[in-house]
Every structure is written in structure tokens, then in C-alpha cells.
Amino acid sequence: MISVAKFQSSKLGKFSILFLAEFFGTGTLLFGGCMAGLDGFGNVTTNVSRGLAFGMVVMMVFITFSATSGAIINPIVTLAAYICGTLSFPLMILYIVAQFAGALCGYGLLRAVTPAVYYQQALEAGYGHCVTAPHESLSSGEALAVEIFLSGVLVWTNCGVWDPRNSKDSDSVPIKFALLIAGLSIAGGPITGASMNPARTLAPAIWNQSFHGLWIYFAGPTVGSLLMATIYRYVFWQTTDDSKPCAMPKSPSACPLEESPSHAKSLP
Q1: Which positions ≥6 away from 266 have C-beta within 8 Å?
Q2: CB contact at 8 A, 165 and 213
Q3: Would you tell me which of 1, 49, 104, 134 could form a disulfide with 138, CB atoms 3.0–4.6 Å apart?
């Protein structure tokens, strides 16, 4: 009989724990964030209330899972972590699979515990509950540019947090990210829905069978991540004399696998 400690220290155990952290973290994001955006039960949400709610949920998830997996809960931030060298390629794939699976299950659970009539009303009034779609006044190119910009700001902020020079400035990171997500969501919500996260967009689209402009929410955030992470990594990123592997604040780390260099890379 394998003990819990032995399982946790094994490679399979470590990968499983990382997968579950990103799965439950992203599931919580969709469950809690989209619950707060549900018009029903006598409550009518606003762009500001939805933005603040997503920010608070991100803060809660970060506090819960940052020590385990970094609480990335976003495929484009996972891609940025790989570009910055804080995640190995196998871990990047593991995280992305967990994030999409978690998002699908989190939103599915929300639908299972709330009346279907509210989702039908949202479809009749627009594209569906928690579905991100460009405003009708936007061209596809304009919507794409907005998602590139919003996602780029998000990625750059993450890169700044992961920068070895900020390794001692981690105490207020959850609050900073809550305010960042809230601000970006409030600013971009009326324009594109401010997705910045393909997993966050895909889950409601699938459950509501509403795919208007879906490609924008894959292409825009991915381009923004590739562009901004690469710029930060090769222009602004600097190592320090006292920097050491996994010294970053709450890094999305290979730290749980640092003794297994074939599966995880330390900081550059």
C-alpha cells in the first residue's frame, strides 16, 4: 500500500497534484466568476460588478493554489511561463489540458445547480450567459486588437512578477492580480467581453452552443502572449546575483519537480 507521502513525492504524484491544482483553479474561476455574472434570482449584474467578481475569484484561486502550481489558470499565461523559462514543455501541456478541462467542468457544474431558464433568457437576449463576443459595432480586426492588447498587459504583469528581481515583493501579489483582472475586465468588458483566456471563453461557448467570433479569443490572447512574453524575456528580464531556482514569488513553478530536471526547468 503506497502512502500518501510516497505518492506525493513520486513523479506521477507530482504531475497529478499540479494537474488537479490547475483543474480546480480554472474550474473555480468559471464557476465563481460566471455565477457572479448571472442575471437571475432578482439580481441584474453590471459590467463593473462582473469585473470585480472575476478579480475576487482570481485572488481566491491564487491564494489557494499559488503554492502548488502557481495558480496560472489561463493557457496564454502558461505559454508565457514557458517562454520565460519557468515551465518546461511537458508541464506547459499538462497545465493547458487541465485548464481547458477545469473550465468545461466548472461552467458545467454552474449550469447544473442553477435554473435553465436563466441560460435560455441570456441566449434570447444575446449570445448566452458568460459568453464573450465582440460588440456589434466592432470589426473582427478591431476586436482582435483589443484582445491582443488586454492579454498583452496581463502577460506583461505576470512576467514582471516572475522576474527574479521581484522575488522579495510577493506579499501583495494576490491583491494586485485581483485589481488587475478587475480593471482589465471593466475596461474591455463592453467591447469584447475582455476574455484574455481561451479556456474561459471556450467553456461557455460549448455549453451554450454559441460560437460567434470564437477564433478571436484564441488568436488574440495567443498573439498577445507570444509577443509580450518574448519582448519581456529578451529585453527586460534580468537575473540577479542572488537569484536561484524557484526564487520567484509564487512562480508557476517547476519547483515541485525541481529535483527532476528532465521534467522542469529552473529560472534562466
Answers
A1: 244, 245, 246, 254, 258
A2: no
A3: 134
Tens digits of residue pLDDT in 117-164 = 999 999 999 999 999 999 999 999 999 999 999 999 999 999 998 988
Here the cell at position 207 is: 455549453
Rg (CA), the chain: 18
Average per-residue pLDDT in the chain? 87
pLDDT value at residue 250 = 38
Q: Is the pLDDT of residue 182 over 80?
A: yes
SS3 of the chain: the string is: CCCHHHHHHCHHHHHHHHHHHHHHHHHHHHHHHHHHCCCECCECCCHHHHHHHHHHHHHHHHHHHCCCCCCCCCHHHHHHHHHHCCCCHHHHHHHHHHHHHHHHHHHHHHHHCCCHHHHHHHHHHCCCCCCCCCCCCCCHHHHHHHHHHHHHHHHHHHHHHHCHHHCCCCCCHHHHHHHHHHHHHHHHHHHHCCCCCHHHHHHHHHHHCCCCCCCHHHHHHHHHHHHHHHHHHHHHCCCCCCCCCCCCCCCCCCHHHCCCCCCCCCCC
Task: Decide if pLDDT at 257 tops 60.
Answer: no
Residue 213 has pLDDT above 90, yes or no: yes
Confidence of residue 43 (pLDDT cuts 50, 70, 90): confident
Residue 113 exposed, middle or buried by CB count within 10 Å (0-12, 13-18, 19+)? exposed
**pLDDT interval class at 75 (50, 70, 90):** very high
CB within 8 A of 38, min separation 6: which ones? 45, 110, 114, 118, 129, 130
